[in-house]
Records
---
Amino acid sequence: RKLFFSSLLRIGSFISFFWSFVLRCAPSLNYEIMIHFVLLVSRQGKVRLTKWYSPYTQKERSKVIRELSGVILNRGPKLCNFVEWRGYKVVYKRYASLYFCMCIDQEDNELEVLEIIHHYVEILDRYFGSVCELDLIFNFHKAYYILDELLIAGELQESSKKTVARIISAQDQMVEAAKEEAGSISNIIAQATK
Amino acid sequence: MDNMFQRSLEDLIKGFRLQLLGESSFISRALEEIRREIKATDLSTKSTALHKLSYLAAIHGVDMSWAAFHAVEVVSSSRFHHKRIGYQAITQSFHDQTSVLLLITNQLRKDLNSVNEYEVSLGLECLSRIGTHDLARDLSPEVFTLLGSSKSFVRKKATGVVLRVFDKYPDAVKVCFKRLVENLETSDPQILSAVVGVFCELASKDPSSCLPLAPEFFKILIESRNNWVLIKVLKIFAKLASVEPRLGKKVAEPICEHMKRTVAKSLVFECVRTVVSSLSDHEAAVKLAVAKIGEFLVEDDPNLKYLGLHALSIAAPKHLWAVLENKEAVVKALSDEDPNVKLEALHLLMAMDSYELCAKSDPLFCNEIIISVLSVCSRNAYEIIVDFNWYVSLLGEMTRIPNCQRGEEIEHQLIDIGMRVGDARPQLVRVSWALLIDPAMLGNLFLHPILSAASWVSGEYVEFAKNPYELVEALVQPRTDLLPPYIRAIYIHSVFKVLVFCLGSYFSAQESSSGSSSTVAFTYESILNLVNVIEIGVWPLSGAYDVEVQERAKNVLGFIGMAKQDIAKKVNLQDNEAEACRVTAFMEDVFSEELGPISANAQEKVFVPDGLELEENLGDLEEICGKFLKPVESDSVPCADKISFSVSNLRIRDQQEASSSSTSLPPKASSSLLAEHRKRHGMYYLTSEKNDPDSNGTPNDYPPANDLASEILLDPLDPKRKAKHRKSRPVVVKLDEGDESRIITSQAKTKQESVTDDESLSRAIQSALLVNKKGKEREAKGIQI
């Protein structure tokens, strides 16, 4: 049996394998995204961050935020962290005054997503040093950049906190260096006299 | 120079927090500013403006699609800072219809080919979000190159993006697949996780094509220690095992190992889910999975309870023993404070074949489940029910459970739903017909209340019946002799309503002489047949001992007598003058008035008209009527005195009796009169005790229900049903006040008490299950209604 399998892995058979796969594929396969959107909302219902991995128009986004905030902010403290909503599941967790919500499909693993949320919070904590809501209010773009290193196409891409921190700081350094250069007097003069 | 004086994003946010003018005016002022700034040629100014705009769009829902072209401009900057802002704006706001979408193709290509890995990552991230068919097609060569990049950071991202590219441009599969498979052998856990994620998706769409890669996945399953990777691999095997059963055998062993060894609950849950959904034939694995579910169910963490119940409901159809093993935990969950846990427990119970469950466990447990389900579902005017058709079928199913003793509650809910939920009426009529036609039901004493509700519902909403003829046959079948007279009376009245409806549609069909609007078309023969069947069925009752039955039977027969003549004279039906027509139309009018739920406070709202005396003693009556009214002998009054009609005498006697009796009724005039009346005419009163000596036969003296059980369809709750939440819930009529919850109340219950009653109910359930002895004692005392 092992021989049979390994022979299948010969390059030659790949070709027929590819083609069979391609031929069976419909024009648009609509692959499922695990996380459809991420929403951070404060206790008072103020939005702190929104990231959409599925297509939602601007109007739909406002509607979703309103509805979901209503559902989640009304939940008591000791209840479970999963809510059924419009045929999807929303996993949420409250950290201090912020609710972190991620919307997933019925087949996905809720505990896994809960861990992803916790992962994100820990990275934020490490980056900002004891992160609080105010940090996210004023550095909302940084929260986005961090989230972009954590999730891509609605899936987890980096499970190591150290790596994410390293990448973000490298990018920060790039930006800093560029700013210094642009802010130097010679550059300003050059710009003004263009 | 401009951007030295430009407000940065931070300034904007600060200003927002300090503003006194009001949010919308602040936002519109900021927007004006942004519109000006964004047109500047200087890229720094432009990008700052764009940055502020992205903030407003993301947090405050402002539309930013008008700035699409500016975003494209900003992205073309060489500075990383600008690029990042530009790409973020693009990812956030571009969609398939954005007109400038094609303009970024070249920029994306440049960035994807950049040596700076962060620029590459920006490009990939953007492609993953907004990729269209054209973009995917044009950029798939770049993605292919990146899949083989030396930098693992880049490879990881490229793998993450690949699915989107495949989705929009399937031909890319040819090009990229080999690289993907090569990446399966990588040692980098992040890349591996991404690749396995891709295959997870591919496996769900087309499992058989991923089957040849099974050995690779198997290796990962055994060797990997990374939980994220393992969860994805488990999902793949769940899909593959359903296509190739032999895989299941191989995989069961390692999965059990993981279940035993790991501490991560997410992994345990995924293992359990894989086992019960795809490997349900492997005994050892299933046993271990159920044991783990048991552990979840007894944890304090509501998340684990919820997931345990969810896994159990997947396992339940094939492994009923799993539910029975955990039945205490399940019933406890029914009264959990978290509504999600409660609902999940409910779904679990309803997904199972309740017949089998109750056959295998004792009747007390059955009834406890039934009553919990009924009370949870009916709380707050059926708040949690979305699909009433399902719920009504469920009520019908409950009726068929052997040893069901909750007749009154089911009766009440059937009628209540009929009155409140218009959309559920067709299903109600269907379910009622199935119950009525079954002769076995008639012999079961406990089910009589349900039958009375079923017949009332069928009569009241007969317009939804598919075949009124069969309905009538069910209502007049000879075996209805087994019913007590008050229910018989309801049956006859329902027959009358059906008759009126049929005659009405027959006559209106005759008059219009084209197709009538009603769904049931009657020919001359069929209406005559119907009338004859009713006549034959009801005729014996016209001599019944019970006056109510007798009177109603005679009403129906009289009506038939009049209608028959007019039916026979077909010719005269063209004109409206036939008497039967007019009477039928009149009766239809009477019956067409919709009955709704009545508030408990309704009686209080009726103003007492002036001049009406309710409290005063009717002592004067004796002077007027004393010589005309003969005293009635009654055995139940202990005194040998002649019973006079004087109210005052009655009052004193009743007070004496009331104080010595066990009930705590206050000695008001009205209730003592009631007690007296009841003693005299006891047989006409509804029985309140289950162990009424007047009842027909012994409780267990009925044949088992026949195959007509299949008429009542009970769809188990499958995943597709949950997706149907999007279908709108039918309208449920609720009263503003006076809506009472009826479950388990003894006579003088107030609203406050009904809340604590729920808790005592759940405590009662728990104690009943945990100590079987106590349960037997309660049964002996008689279960309190």
---
Amino acid sequence: MKREHHHLHPNPQYTQQEVDPPSGGSCSSAAATAGTEKTKMWEEEEEAQDCGGMDELLAVLGYKVRSSDMADVAQKLEHLEEVMGTVQEDGLSHLASDTVHYNPSDLSTWLETMISELNPPLSNYDPQPPPPPPPQQSSVTSLSIDDSFLAPAESSSISDVYSSSHHHQQQNMNTPRVFEDSSTDMYNYDLKAAIPGKVVYNNSSLNQAHNIDSSSSSSHRNKRLKLKPSSINGPFGVPIPSESSSTRPVVLVDSQENGVRLVHTLLACADAVQQDNLTIAEALVNQISFLAVSQAGAMRKVATYFAEGLARRIYRLYPQNPLDHSFSDILQMHFYETCPYLKFAHFTANQAILEAFEGRKRVHVIDFSMNQRMQWPTLMQALALRPGGPPAFRLTGIGPPAHDNSDHLQEVGWKLAQLAETIHVEFEYRGFVAKSLDDLDASMLELRPNEVESVAVNSVFELHKLLARPGAIEKVLSVVKQMKPEIFTIVEQEASHNGPVFLDRFNESLHYYSTLFDSLEGSLNTQDKMMSEVYLGKQICNVVACEGVDRVERHETLNQWRNRMGSAGFVPAHLGSNAYKQASTLLELFAGGEGYRVEENNGCLLLGWHTRPLIATSAWKLDCKPAMLAL
Amino acid sequence: KEKRPKFCINDHVDILIEILKRLDGRSLGVAASVCRLWCNITRNDSIWEDLCFSHVSPSPPRAVRPVVVALGGYKKLYMGCVRPVQSRLGESERVGRAWTRDVEVQLSLSLFCVDYYERLGGGGGGGGGRFGGDASASSLMFLCKPVNV
């Protein structure tokens, strides 16, 4: 795990710096010198195998600590930290001048010694669990940290802290220090959060910390700010000995309130970014990160991805455009398996194509999304089983270039050919590599005359990428028209992520991806789920952080596509009831269909989660089909 | 007094087949454990064919058989697709939907095909990453997983 060491300063420096909460400026992470060891200890404790006597990992570093004593030692370290914090500035100097040095390798006893040395005023340190602070103005829930990120890890609400800190202005001029979070930082702050002690170092309030007195709960709250910038990537289950938390006052937080606050902060940050107000935006991004932690499940993940996108936009660390297609293919496969969206897309599109090809003896499908190879086995099988026997099936796949120069399109073709042979379907395959669809030209495809061969064109989640470049979509649509397809099936995300105003796009995509992530929550295979989330996270990053040609996830709504297709000369072909039936049955099969809804909208099918439609399948044919002889 | 010859079903295999054809999946499995003869009969794929399509009112076109056989046979179709599909859908409330069975069958066939496809080894090496020689058919896994209640 990466950690930021360079922000650790010895205690005395805190008193000098003031951090104004709303415009965070350059916040630096705070920890006492003992804190380094403490965090290190916690980290190692997490990693330590239970290996009998001495803890192995610490032994490597020269510390002799028994594994069974770990929790105890950790507590003592924290205690020491507190002690050192309370001691007045000159109180520590004797440590420097003292010629007695204690050997810290036996950590336990060393700590004891240090504590007793520094410890005159702390005789009232009470290791028993304090009475819980009486409910203050905002509602509170109890802190319990389980082992995985799924547990609601609460942190106190920022506004409470800030309000109490203002209240204490006369007592201490320090405002709580905010941990810096760079969203790409892998610092495992989870550990810090597990320590329900001080993360904010506020000198005078530290004194109060040890007067475990319920009446000073407001000062408790001041300290209880668990600043926990989260790391972006996935779960970090830390087996935290939460038993030690019983000796500390606990923070109570309302996570639902935090959820609302989180959304507001996200939007505020986006607004700041739009207005180019980057200092505010930066502070808000930090806030988002640790507010996100207070949420559980989908909201947390969505918030972290959006925070990452915003951070990239603020710091201008634009993501490289996805060049590694094999990786994104893998991600897409997991997405395919985790949730029914892609399956729905394939089945409905196939149904439309099947119906359009009725009675034809030779059919040709041109697939713009050849990375979606799972669509074709089922079409082939349906063609094989259709009454009257299968037609001759020709497939032209168009896909992006593979980074490792492997001919993945040919591999797919080979597998399909094997399947075709097994089920006795005459099959022909051709793969085209094209960096972008508008590089295509109808003449490249070697189309045969229409009476001989019927054409269908298929595009799943590909057309919106063309909107990044002016003129591209028009060119592609005209090329499609040249192919004279019987049917053109389009599956696209049902969302408006291509508006001119950044804030609107942000808002829309926040709701869209929240819904999408919610629907993923029910899936049981955690690895698949995680990969799907990464897949979607990349899309989020693209929508939020990229601009211009790089921003390829330019989703548009069904109506927008209808207009576009209409003006390009296509008329809608209604998806029949068979498609609807198949889609509904498919959804029932999948997780009992809970939450997923199929809707029919003027001949198009929409799949959504509860009330929110998420993807739309539509089919189009040419406006007028001139009676033609082969031209 | 003339003793009537005892009737032993095992002497009349054609009748036995007719009877076994009408059993449901579980009973067929049980029947397979009765004796060697019965076991051999149940191994015969055509018995499973009726099991798969008995509910479909117009029986499926003849073209189906070679396809199913080529993709792995009726028993596999039943065990892998038809049974999970039926049991999964049977759980949910379906009121008067006559078309459901047809769609179920279609879906089962599609999934069966996908399963076969996924098990295909890679062609010119690799075969698309995880599908190359992957024993477990990922697309059908969702059928095996417990449904979120």
